[in-house]
Design brief:
This protein is α+β, with helices and mostly antiparallel strands and about 500 residues long. It has 14 helices and 13 strands. Strands 1, 2, 3, 4, 5, 6, 7, 8, 9, 10 and 11 form an eleven-stranded mixed sheet that branches. Strand 12 and strand 13 form a beta hairpin. Helix 1 packs across helix 2 and helix 8 packs parallel to helix 14 (about 450-495). The longest helix is centred in the middle third of the chain and has 54 residues, at about 260-315. The radius of gyration is 37 Å and the shape is elongated.
């Protein structure tokens, strides 16, 4: 019977479905758009930030030690735990104490996966196990010191002059991407020395160095980072030094170099700003959506009055009438609630190709979230309530009963609520003209001024309620003018 009635009024039912779908799409687009804008801002910040700010470098000094692989395991484990949401790439390197060679200060070093991040200008990559050790020299250092492939370098430690290292230059290299995380933004990372003269990890630790600085450069997969993961990641980064230095003495602790927590904090502020920026129009859209739902529900109820009275006369109970209304409301609202968030995300994605966002090059990556579904479900619930609640209070109806004035309209006008809301709305409008936004300072943090947010909604609601008073007056005036014109025309014909 429900399907039969829906088919009979298919035009009205289709219109109701489109109204519910549009309302659910509008309200579900609110959190999707705010998150997409903040997400785009976060990724743009991370992409534009220098490698030394958007990534992490852990450094520790090792005195008189050999190749301690336990440090690699410790750092990599802590990094995987901190960046579990995004994944992370770890680049290991080391630098020796300063040496003196031909009156110049040089340092030796090693890099994991060195051939994968450097270009060979001349010679070949260094190998392990030969004496003297094989090293590759940066092309800038080779030019400054006039070094060529095959040259033998004898270097003496500045910390222990009895330690002498003999190295043969077998290659000259340049950085493949000098600004990358691997080189930490600068291939020549030595402090006041030439180099590094790069050898293999095995040869490096075989030198028996007095003071070694080990580095681990952590590059998170920021393209996989979502705005919801920014705050948890910032907390993990705050705990990272404690994980690395647990049980280590004061002189052997890790030092961390990064500006990533500040970038993530800026992303959180951007999210608050984005949400505040769309809050006022969102309230207006929500009110318009609710109004459209109520009007549509009223139209459906009007069309069902005869059916409801007929069912009453046949002996149908209130429960049966409510059940039919609930089924009909579910057939209208449920598909709209399911489709609306995806329709909202698709519509926002289209802004990447047309509209103001495409003109400024801002790309949105909208994703459907639980909040979007919750708002769409709320819109569907309003539709269901609008159809079911009148049936719940249904009694024996009369087709000829007076319907000229709704109880709500009568109550609003008698209580002068429309006038009160109009006054509050004008006060809110006056307040809005004095401010440039809805964000205010609250104990050093940003908050949202509730009155400023409510002011546009009050304006819209007051206008809707005033229409309950003005529209009947306008209709009566039009009716009087039409009747007067018809009377004059009749008298003219009679004369």
């Amino acid at each position: 019977m429900v399907l039969k009635g829906a088919f009979a009024d298919r035009l009205l039912v289709a219109t109701a479905f489109l109204v519910v779908l549009l309302a659910a799409t509008l309200v579900s687009a609110i959190p999707i758009y705010a998150n997409a804008v903040a997400q785009s801002s976060l990724r743009e910040r991370l992409e534009r930030a220098p490698a030394t700010e958007a990534n992490v470098q852990a450094t520790v000094s090792v005195f008189g030690g050999g190749d301690d692989r336990r440090l690699d395991t410790q750092v990599e484990g802590a990094a995987r735990e901190a960046f579990s949401a995004t994944g992370v790439a770890v680049f290991r390197s080391g630098e020796s104490e300063p040496f003196t060679a031909d009156g110049r200060t040089v340092v030796f070093g090693f890099f994991d996966d060195f051939p994968g991040h450097a270009r060979l200008v001349a010679g070949h990559w260094p190998g392990s196990g030969s004496a003297p050790i094989e090293v590759a020299v940066p092309d800038g250092v080779a030019r400054a010191l006039q070094l060529r492939v095959g040259r033998l370098v004898q270097a003496r430690s500045r910390l222990d002059e009895s330690r002498v290292v003999r190295a043969r230059i077998v290659g000259i290299y340049s950085a493949a991407n000098p600004s990358s995380v691997y080189w930490w933004g600068n291939p020549l990372t030595t402090a006041g020395a030439y180099g590094p003269l790069v050898t293999t990890r095995r040869s490096f630790f075989a030198l028996g160095l007095e003071d070694i600085e080990l580095r681990w450069r952590l590059q998170p997969e920021t393209r996989r980072l979502t705005i919801d993961e920014a705050a948890p990641l910032r907390r993990e980064l705050e705990r990272l030094p404690g994980r690395l230095n647990e049980g280590r003495s004061e002189g052997e602790q890790f030092a961390l170099d990064t500006n990533l927590p500040e970038i993530l904090a800026g992303a959180s502020r951007s999210l608050r700003l984005a949400r505040a920026g769309v809050l006022v129009p969102s309230i207006q859209l929500a009110l318009l959506a609710i109004y459209g739902l109520i009007v549509t529900a009223a139209l459906l109820i009007e069309r069902r009055l005869v059916t409801t009275e007929s069912m009453r006369l046949r002996g149908a109970t209130t429960t049966q009438i409510v059940a039919m209304s609930l089924i009909e409301a579910g057939l209208i609202a449920l598909p709209a609630v399911i489709v609306a968030p995806w329709l909202a995300a698709g519509s926002l994605r289209a802004l990447n190709y047309a509209g103001p966002l495409a003109d400024i090059g801002l790309r949105l990556e909208p994703h459907v979230n639980a909040t979007a579904y919750a708002l769409a479900a709320a819109a569907g619930a309003v539709c269901v309530a609008g159809l079911v609640l009148p049936a719940l209070g249904a009694r024996r109806l009369s087709i000829s009963r007076d319907r000229r004035r709704r109880p709500l309209a009568s109550f609003v006008q008698r209580a002068r609520l429309d006038v009160v809301l109009a006054v509050l709305a004008l006060l809110g409008y006056w307040q809005l003209r004095r401010y440039h936004g809805v964000l205010v300072s609250n104990r050093g943090d940003l908050g949202i001024d509730p009155f400023l947010v409510a002011a546009p909604a009050l304006l819209l609601l007051a206008g809707a309620l005033l229409s309950l008073r003005l529209v009947p007056l306008a209709a009566a005036l039009v009716e009087r003018v039409v009747q007067r014109g018809m009377t004059c025309e009749y008298l003219g014909e009679a004369g």
